[in-house]
Specification:
Length: 281
């Protein structure tokens, strides 16, 4: 886990899905005046230079955010996401990519709170630099899967947790389920957004079954793939599993996901899934 650097993957198709969903949830939370709290268990560095050594190595953003940068026919939620990224770039050029911490920061009101967890020593230094002088934000140099549980329920009694581990360790698939079960027991009305990669479909199916077995209700799944599942292809798709999603999130994604699959899919092989894993009570 400590060798993982998100900068290699910044702005790829998985980031597009993750951040479209994240921004839609946050926008929903801002519709009420009451403050909310956001916990990001794997914050990363917060911002990534796309012409830097890491991002430019594989240029994964070419198959993600770059495909959307100049389009004027995007669904509303995708337009909002691209517009937010353009705030961090000048002269209309795509040079940097804002990660979850900076995107969340843009939607915080004066009394909202943000807790950012990061364990990687280099990433934590970048995160502190990118998030400096923001009194609404608390940065924790710690394991977010373990240490964030103690923050629940938040004082605000409203909010969300975004969880996107690297999954370099197979145990992460089991750990995220255990952590979500513990979190939900403490804060059952919160919204939880779990990102996952699709590398081994059987592993993903096991993850879904394990979440269903927790007894947690109101779980929806949104997945975007750029190629058909094939062995030795690496990540073919990624998804977001959302517990207690906003009432309109599924409707929004029913418009956005087919469009994204068509635009970002390779040679017409884009795929998507929209499923209710467990219905609302």
């Amino acid at each position: 886990m400590l060798s993982y650097r998100h900068a290699f993957h910044a702005g790829n198709f998985a980031d597009v899905l993750k951040h479209v969903v994240l921004l839609d949830i946050l926008t929903y939370l801002t519709q009420k005046d009451k403050p909310f709290c956001v916990i990001d268990t794997h914050a990363g560095g917060g911002k990534y230079e796309l012409d830097g050594d890491y991002a430019s190595k594989n240029r994964e953003f070419d198959s993600g955010i770059s495909q959307l940068w100049q389009r004027d026919d995007m669904p509303v939620c995708v337009t909002n996401y691209v517009s937010m990224q353009k705030r961090f770039n000048s002269n209309g050029q795509l040079n940097r990519y804002a990660g979850s911490p900076l995107l969340i920061k843009q939607l915080l009101r004066p009394n909202d709170k943000l807790h950012l967890f990061e364990l990687h020593s280099t990433e934590i230094a970048a995160l502190k630099l990118n998030m400096k002088h923001d009194k609404r934000t608390v940065i924790h140099h710690a394991d977010g899967l373990k240490e964030s549980i103690g923050l629940l329920p938040p004082i605000e009694r409203r909010g969300m947790v975004i969880m996107d581990p690297s999954y370099e360790m197979k145990s992460d698939y089991e750990q995220v389920v255990k952590t979500l079960a513990q979190m939900h027991k403490r804060f059952s009305t919160g919204t939880y957004a779990l990102w996952y990669p699709v590398i081994d479909r059987e592993r993903n199916q096991a993850l879904e079954k394990a979440l269903i077995k927790t007894g947690i209700t109101n779980i929806q799944l949104f997945e975007l793939g750029t190629v058909l599942d094939e062995s030795k292809r690496g990540m073919t798709a990624s998804g977001m599993i959302v517990i207690n999603p906003p009432w309109n999130l599924a409707k929004t994604m029913q418009i956005a996901l087919p469009w994204l699959a068509n635009v970002l899919g390779e040679s017409g092989k884009g795929t998507y899934r929209i499923e209710t894993l467990v219905a609302e009570k």
